[in-house]
Amino acid sequence: MSLALGLAILGLPLAALMALPVRQARAAFPGRNGKIVYERQLGFGPIHIFATNPEGSHRRRLTHNRRRDFAPAFSANGKRIAFERFGDIAVMRANGSNPHRVTRSGFLDSSPAFTPDGRIVFSRVTNGEDIYVMHADGSHRHRLTHSGDCASPAVSPNGRRIAFGRFRGIWVMRADGSHQRRVDRLGGRPNYSPHGKRITFDRHFRGIWVMRADGSHTHRLTERDGDSDPAFSPNGKRIVFYRGNPQQIWVMRADGSHQHPVTHGRADSGEPDWGVRH
Fold this sequence. Notes:
Blueprint: H1 3-10, E1 33-41, E2 47-52, E3 60-61, E4 69-74, E5 80-85, E6 88-93, E7 100-101, E8 108-114, E9 120-125, E10 129-134, E11 142-143, E12 150-155, E13 161-166, E14 169-174, E15 181-184, E16 188-192, E17 198-202, E18 208-212, E19 219-220, E20 228-232, E21 238-243, E22 248-253, E23 260-261, E24 268-276
């Protein structure tokens, strides 16, 4: 979901947009490549979550809410999907059944990402934006950051680290919120590779990039401005992202080669995640 829309939901001033990082969250867990999930909107209508095979076949709509559902993220075993439902975090089965909200805070909760043990990391906008963790049923909520400019949490496959975006670049911290350090000064929307050794990200919508998890050996994978929301496949050999106007889901090899679209048409598609086959 766009942050501007999220602020509008809360009635927050648009000026707050300039103080918060761009949001997104996911975790790439190792395994065989399964479905790709993403959000899709036609015009100004409702936004729904869809799933498709990696080559674009067997597309299926998973949510049927009259409002808007955003930012889907698979669990480690590929059997559940966390997502944002109009300012709250919700969870459903991977086939779209049993959708239910797990937060009802009155704030803007977004960018959910599962941990390997089934908890959910997410961001919450109050006066600023910070990262929290909770059990998948919404209980035992705990705040991890306190600077007011933290978003886009991405959990490492072993659950020991969380990469996230701040107003100034990409940071990494331990899973308990300690030992925060910056690993890139320009990027946002980080996502770990399934072995945890690399992070893919965008740089303010100026191409998809990749670096080692410690911030070294950074290089650009795509040359088109507007490419965003990268996520590794479970086998680590491909990256899914969105591109274009209208936005479409694309897939490429992890080295940036063999780029091709997965979705087509007039509707905007974005915020993809790639789950393991189960």
